[in-house]
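Two proteins were folded this term; both appear here.
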Amino acid sequence: MGLCFGWSLLLGIVCLASSCHLLLRGTLSSCTGVQWILSGFGGSLSLLLGIISLDFNRYGPISVLHSGTDVVIHYLLSRFFSTLSFFSERKLKVAYKNLRQVQTDFLLARLKANANTDYGRKHSFAKIKSIKDFVQMHPITTFNHYKDYIERVEGGEADVMIPGLPVLLALTTGTTGASKLIPFPKEHPREMFLKQMLITDQKIKKVHSNGHSLQRTLDLKYYTRWDKSKGGIPIGQFTGTPTAYGKSNITSAMRLTVTSPPAAFEIKTDQEIIYVHLLCALRDKNLGRIEACFAVTVYYSFVLLEKRWQELVNDIKLGRVNPELDIDDRIRNELNSHLVPMPHRARELAAEFSRGFSSISQRIWPHLNAIACATGGSFAAYYTTLKQKYCQCTPVVSPGFMSSEVVIGTNLWLESEKPEFIINSLVTFFRVRASRKRGPGPARD
């Protein structure tokens, strides 16, 4: 690639110099004019290829699982998402400096969009013109306030809480109580990606791999069991496998950026799906990141790795999925089509596992940049155990403070493992209420 850069740059300079020479000669004949155009175009193209080659040379290491085509496409996607993320992060920071105006605009836009729903009419959304109006006219609520409305949505009634019907009734994980159903409007997943997930994804790359990486990610997701409401609306956990509300949603970008092939995400049993995720990731010595919703998932994945490493090593050596796993034959055959025998990698792994599991993450994946998952609250104990045993030398960071219902905060300080967040005013309206503990008298907005 370095040689390609040198020749492209040299050719570009020569062609551009030639076109400048023709231009400076004064009067251009028709023939000379054509030569000038072709020379200039060729020079510009060669110069551009030289610059791209130079930029590409900064990227490394590269996933062992990548083909030549994968490398080129991954590079182009990386540059595109990096540019997109730059503007998204900039918008978030600017919004924080002008918080009240941004929050006012966000609230009024949402109220206007939902003014003609049944809920919007009953709560006079069309009459609300400011945050002060909203505070005076709409009470602070809990889930029970919306329960009857959500039951109507579940039955298939349109224009109840949002225009039309939601694309999904998201089932909460129940970490703070019983699971609940949250209606997702069609724009919600896109907003979550552009204004939250993309920002933190690129931030981790920038902080922990200098922003230049063509590595893959071990994406530790479980199978989502999808249901349908009485009205035919998909019901499932938004934090589960990459699916578009019951249908596969493994995008082309994901095929290049995660270690597991699409068939792996169709495995329905928890032990088997984590086993296969580990199997696929262990094949890639240049793994860049591990991702999961919660630290508990990462912890139990390493527990499974410690318990079953000999089976995993044998599968890598033979280039197959363990025949004892409870997996559908169609899925097994598709997974096996992606695997090839890797005896050398198997020997490397066996040698490291035989030495014990202290700091195992960095020993089996020497280029592992970070582990991204929720590490606070009830997951803090799992984070501590991970750092004490399996991941002593690997940064474990918490990219966001969020739930199925709402995005609360975005972590822009991912060089530190201490979770710190900036409130994400681009996707959530915040109504801050003074605590009663501050003194006598009623709580105030």
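Next, the second protein.
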Amino acid sequence: MRVKVLSRNPSDYARETKADIHRIQRNVDPVLHPLEGAREYQRALNAAKLERVFAKPFVGSLSGHTDGVYCMAKHPSVLSCLVSGSCDGEIRVWNLSRQQCMLAFTAHSGFVRGVSLNTSGTTIISVGDDQCIKYWPLETSQLTFSQKLPTSTIMGKTVFTGIDHHWSKPLFATCSSQVDIWDESRTEPVHSLVWGADGVSSVRFNPIERNVLASTGSDRSIALYDIRGVSPLRKVVLDMRSNSVAWNPMEAFNFTVANEDSNLYTFDMRRLDQALCVHMDHVGAVLDCDYAPTGREFVSGGFDRTIRIFPFDQGHSREVYHTKRMQRVFCVKWTGDSKFVLSGSDETNIRLWKAQASEKLGSVTVPIVATVCHLSVREDSDLVQNIVYWNSTVCIISCSCFSVNVVSWFMYI
């Protein structure tokens, strides 16, 4: 005769103390739980998507221009200062922290093709369809809405299509039918650089190798120049025309161009025979691009009415921003603190976006815990006045209503 006995060990289900949680018996046999992996995957996916679902990347819109915003420039030392130029010849200076226009004036008859600021940020240099280079004084502490007059005007021979200032010297470069290097104290170009192109659409100085500049031409070429030798360095020709060029601020040899074939190409200036990376996702011509101060990402905008943020070494964008009213994006900029992205488009607005779509903005509320310490003072002491001391961490209040004084100490934690 065989007898089966049920045997249970109390240590398998009993709690050692009352504070312990109850043990739950569960069979982990995968045959009894065929969808366990799918459930865990769905939970992890939902958790990762929560930030994307509740992301609000749009911060605000800077309105005031009466025509499309064609170009923008950042102040070299003031993060909240932005200069923009529109297609009706108007230049505006903005305070980004207040989202207000601080200064507006008519600069050119026709398009403002480019704006730039000198190294000290005290002068705005603009070029336009009227074949003029104009210098405008800028004092960020005394911005008003009064009509400004240029301190100097230089008449050019052709229409200028772009401008960029040297990062440390009082020099700037303009592009038209050729690339001209100007000194701020002279009315004639110091050097003129030509390499086969009938027209040059953009020019940019290298922020690290500051004597090297790149330009994009109408003959589908990208040319590199060194102003020390006053001679071209290298040249590469693509299948379609490039509209803009941006240098990586952390890698001296790398630059990215925005092309008409809806792609962006990153090159190493030491090896132009092959692109380091082809950045896709745009469905229209790309008009402008700009790098973040970290050098790890860049922003682009174009005819498809979208703004895309690309990692510098990946072929697809991690973010795409657009609104219903936004039209063709002419210019994009990344702010100096690497937190925001600016876009200027054809419907007269400048839009401010978060660089990280799900990042929380605003002041952080810190809970206040009051710790009261009663300090007895000599009973025979008299205070002639109340003393109140306040700073960001400690608030001390002394009361002299009675002969015995009580001091309360409130500490922020």
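The helical segments are 36-53. The CA atoms of residues 253 and 271 lie 10 Å apart. These notes refer to the second protein only.
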